[in-house]
Structure formats: structure tokens, C-alpha cells
Amino acid sequence: MAYRPTWQGHLKLSLVTCPVALFTATNARGDVHFNLINPKTNNRIRMITTDPDTGPVDRSDLVKGYEVSKGEYILLTNDEIASVKLESTRTIDIERFVPADEIDRLYWDSPYYLTPDGKMAQEAFGVIRTAMERTGQIALGRIVIGTRERILALEPRDKGILAYTLRTDAEVRRPEEVFDSISDKAADPAMIAIAEKIIEQKEGPFDPHDFVDRYETALKALIADKQKGHKVKTVEAPEDTNVVDLMAALKASLEAKGKAAAKTSKARPKAAKAPASRSARSRKAS
């Protein structure tokens, strides 16, 4: 499948430069998309751009406006916005290298793939990519996507480079602004010990194939049921665990998980005895 690049320009490491293309690394989220429908007519609602004084307006006649005060806007055309030129609009200039663990996960945003753009770019791209791989660090540069300059974190991935836009400090809320209301009271050590055992029972490798969008699957099933004329059943929200019952709930969780593991172990078929190799069968026959 041929993908269309999100951005095309140059990757620059000091005096080494090569043409590159940036591709989104993820697909659009979800297959279920809803439209607004008037249930009285079953017609889809159309959103019409409207001026409160003159009525409907053609989208092609509209321009962007920045509000400087209530009801007062500075109008900008697309050409005027495009006239703002930064080096990062066409070039990703690697400014520094940092250890990966120094970048808080709060700042990681959207993933992209960076590739050489054309055969002539292959050699220079390979040199930059391999040098980055040997340092084992994250390269930081800047890029303009849309109408924003973003910090870009680059690291080798397979034959190309994985690029992540990073959120700025102003975009990230301070954890204490949200967590301050959480009690400082220490949790019960006995309860923590049981919770740790439950965690150990649930340990395992990460396989993205194990995690699908169950909500979207349920929505599709709901739509199919409605299409067949079936009545939709409502689901009640689970009740919160009372503090009095917390220890009992923890113990019950641990016991249930243990029983489930034992049941799975018993149900698992025994491995079949491996057949003897051809050379072993020959020795036996002789």
C-alpha cells in the first residue's frame, strides 16, 4: 500500500543533509462513525456555515481570524499564514541528543515514520540513522506541522527512524494540580501484600494483539442487533468496593485467580512425546 507523506523536507545533522518524508505511524481510530440524524424524518443533518447577520456563507469565501479582544479579529488569508517561514517548516535540524529515560512519558505525543525521500537520499540517511543507533540516544529537532512548530524526538527503528512529536511544557498539566486531593494516609500493609500477589498472578508479556477495542466491537454488535429489530438491554454500572469489604474483596480476588490458574493448568493437554529422529530409528533397527 502506498502511503501519502504528512510532511516532506530535509533531515539535517550538522552539515549532513538529506531529503526525507514523514508518515503517520497509526491508522484512523475506529471504524464506527456516527452521523447526526433527525429521527422525525430519518434525514442526515447538514452543517451549514452561517453568518448571524447575512445567513449562509460559502466556505471558500472564509478566512481565518485571531481574536485580539471580544468580537475583534485580525484576519489572515492562507497565503499570509504560509508566508511565515521558519527553517523547521522545511528542515528537521537535529539540535541535541538526550538519553531516552530523561524524557517524561507525559511529553510523548504522536508517532511518525521518517524515511529517505528518493534514491539520492539513501546514503546520507543511512549514515545519520546508523550514527544515531550507535549512540543509543534520542535526537531532538523541530518541525512545523500545520500551523504549529513541534519538538520532534527521533530514534532508529528497523531500517528507518521513528519520530515522535513532543508536547511543550505549557501543554502538560502539573500532576500535583490534580493529585493534591488524594489522601496522604498510608495504605494497609496487609492489603498491599495481597494486592502484590494478585499483580504477580497477572504478570505477562505485552502483545498488542491481545488488546482490541472491545467497545467498538460491542457497538458493532449493538448496531447489528438494532438492524435485526432486537431490543437493546441496558447495562448497570458496577458498585464501588466499600472500605469495610476491601480486605474481603482482595482475598476473594486472590483465591479466584488461583482457582482459575489451577483449572487452566489441568485443562492444558500434555505434550505429545516427540517422535524419534531418523538416525535414532536407524540405530534401533540395526
Q: What features would you describe in this structure?
A:
This protein has seven helices and 14 strands. Helix content is 28%, strand content 26%. Strands 9-1-2-11-14-13-12-10 form an eight-stranded mixed beta sheet. A two-stranded antiparallel ribbon has the order 3-4. A two-stranded antiparallel sheet has the order 5-6. β13 (148-157) and β14 (160-166) form a beta hairpin. The protein is extended, with a radius of gyration of 29 Å. It is α+β, with helices and mostly antiparallel strands. Residues 271-286 have low confidence and may be disordered. The protein starts with 6 loop residues before the first strand and ends with a helix. The chain has helices spanning 78-82, 122-135, 175-179, 189-201, 214-227, 246-267, 278-285; strands at residues 7-13, 16-24, 37-38, 43-44, 50-51, 55-56, 64-69, 72-76, 91-93, 96-98, 108-116, 138-145, 148-157, 160-166.
Task: Give the topology.
Blueprint (H helix, E strand, L loop, with lengths): L6 E7 L2 E9 L12 E2 L4 E2 L5 E2 L3 E2 L7 E6 L2 E5 L1 H5 L8 E3 L2 E3 L9 E9 L5 H14 L2 E8 L2 E10 L2 E7 L8 H5 L9 H13 L12 H14 L18 H22 L10 H8 L1
Parallel strand pairs: 1-9
Antiparallel strand pairs: 1-2, 2-11, 3-4, 5-6, 7-8, 10-12, 11-14, 12-13, 13-14
Helix pairs in contact: 4-6
Mean pLDDT: 83
> Helix segment count?
7
| Amino- and carboxy-terminal Cα gap | 58 Å
Strand runs, count = 14
Tell me the overall shape: extended
From the alpha carbons, calculate the radius of gyration and give it in angstroms. 29 Å
How much of the polypeptide forms β-strand, as a percent range? 25-35%
Oligomer status = single chain
Give the spatial strand order of the biggest sheet: 9-1-2-11-14-13-12-10
Q: Structural class of the secondary elements?
A: alpha+beta
N-to-C order of helices and strands: EEEEEEEEHEEEHEEEHHHHH
Helix fraction, binned, reads 25-40%
The biggest beta sheet is recorded as:
8 strands, mixed
Report the uncertain regions: 271-286
